[in-house]
Amino acid sequence: MSPTPGVVIPTRDELSLQPLLVSLAATPLPPTAQVVIVDDRSNPLPDIAIPRELRARSAVRVQRSWGRGLPAAANLGWRVCDTEWVVFLPTDVRVTLEWADQLMRELAAAGARTGLSQGQSPAGRSRHGAVSPWSLGDLAARRDALNEVGGFDERYRCGSRAAIDVALRMHRDGWLLRQAARQLDHRATQPRPAPAPPYRCMADDALLRRMHGRRWRQTIGAPRGHFGWHAGTTAAAATANLAAAARGVGAPIPRRLPLLLAGAAVTSSAALVATRVIQRQRPGRSRWSTAAAGIIESPVAVMQRLRGELRHRVAAAWPTEVLAVLFERDGTLIRDIPLNTDPGQVRPLPGARAAVDRLRRKGVRVGLMATETAVGAGDVTRHQMRAVNEQVDRLLGPFDTWQLCTHAPDAGCSCRLPEPGMPSRAARELDVPVSALAVVGHLGEDVTSALRAGARSVLVPGPNTSAAAIATAPRTARDLQTAVELIVRGDVP
Ligand SMILES: [Zn+2]
User: Same structural domain for residues 179 and 263?
Assistant: First the structure.
């Protein structure tokens, strides 16, 4: 383990990333530093440009998380690093020499049970001026602690809520959490993108409450939320409307009641708008658009919270280990014979039987996926395909799920690799979260399919594996046994 932390930068915005990369190249972190940029654009083209000076200093990797959100991008990043510590950086900042020095000192001074060290970054500052104690901006995390709690819960949409959730789970497991003094240079080099509207985290608060109980804010020292205010404002406005309507149809309601309620709602809403405008809480936006956003904020916040309550009403704990493995069939588990219709030709590859058996003994569900485009194209009949697969089942089965793409190559189906259909469907059929599913394959398209679905993956290179696939796969293993070993340890990006 290297004492230098790995640097993980989840990003969706290349423009605000460049000044950070330039500053990293100029900052003498020890030359062994690993830098992982996780490109979370849904369509990650064109490639992110890496300054030559940075490439010369550090091992830079670009991984793609296909628009699955900040927590998923962060998970991919820390799992790719093999350092003792990982530090997550936001994109709209620059690192400085003082920051790097202080980070190294703070991590060196952290005890073996310290799980998190949070730098003081404005990314944690909410639009209400209150500071969220934990955020993905300048968060250093001990890799073992992240692994123990299963990483970030990818159901959160806000980075700060995902960080608070990880802090709460580490706290529960006895890890120490530190607020550190280091500070990034956050003088924006680009016009800062307008921050997300403050109500976006409301749905996440429903999940935090479900996972950690109603006292999660006290446990972690988070400032009080504003949901009560939003709920009160919205309720007053709604009741005013109802009372007015009831009076209209002759209900015995005092004449002043609708007016009083409407007045309360307007006053409360106006106070919110005024705070927003005075504090200029949405940089980059005009005062008028800030005011307009303030007026609709309370009802939208209430709606978001209700959506969150609904979405997460039966949410289970975030899984800490891999619960199911989907093996690619031809070239990974059995010898690849194109257009094979003879069951007698089916030969398991070395270690295949032992690998699937070891997983089954560990209680990990095992599935199989294969592309059968020859069926869609009419070169192989369904009957022939079934006979071959029955032989695979006899030699290596039973499998808990079979995923077959039998469509023609030009059918435009969602299961043709590297589309994400087969891993997604396997997770649904096995009733496991897709993030607890690992795909084991020998081609780049197997890995891409897993990444796009939100699953984890190990590439086991074979004779047909391209050099590009090996260079970009988040994790490779030299054989099936090693791949299974990594999966059982839960150490798979
Ligand atoms: Zn298909």
Answer: no
CB 132 within 8 A of CB 217: no
CA 382 to ligand 1 centroid distance, Å: 14
Neighbour tally for 41: CB within 10 Å? 15
Output the domain CATH number for residue 453.
3.40.50.1000
**CATH code of the domain covering residue 121:** 3.90.550.10
User: Does residue 368 belong to any structural domain of this protein?
Assistant: yes
Co-location of 174 and 240 in the same domain: no
- Ligand 1 centroid–CA 418 distance in Å is 10
Based on the domain organization, do 242 and 384 belong to the same domain?
A: no
Q: How far is 475 from 471, CA to CA, in rounded Å?
A: 9
Residues lining ion ligand 1 (Cβ < 5 A) are 405, 407, 413, 415-416
Query: Which of 217-221, 289-293, 460-464 has the lowest average pLDDT?
Result: 289-293
In a domain, 204, yes or no: no
Exposure b/e, 208-243, CB count within 10 A at least 16 = b: bbbbbeeebbeebebeebbbebbeebbebbebbeeb
Which are the contacts of 487, defined by CB distance < 8 A and separation ≥ 6? 322, 325, 359, 364, 438, 440, 458
Rounded distance from Cα 42 to ligand 1 centre (Å):
21
Position 269 in a domain: yes
pLDDT digits (tens, 9 = 90+) for 450-487: 999 999 999 999 999 999 999 999 999 999 999 999 99
Cα(445) to centroid(ligand 1), Å: 14
What pLDDT is attached to residue 197? 59
**The pLDDT of residue 283:** 55
- Cα 480 to middle of ligand 1, angstroms: 26
Residue 117 lies in a domain: yes
Measure the CA–CA gap between 211 and 430, rounded to whole angstroms: 23
Which of 270, 287, 311 lies at the terminal end of a domain, its last residue?
311
pLDDT tens digits for range 333-361: 999 988 888 889 999 999 999 999 999 99
Is the domain of 24 the same as that of 125? yes
CA of 374 to the centre of ligand 1 (A): 11
User: Ligand 1 mean position to 396 CA, how many Å?
Assistant: 24
Note down the domain range covering 297: 227-311
143 within 8 A of 86, measured Cβ to Cβ: yes
- Regarding whether 297 and 271 lie in a shared domain, the answer is yes
Count up the domains in the chain and report the number: 3
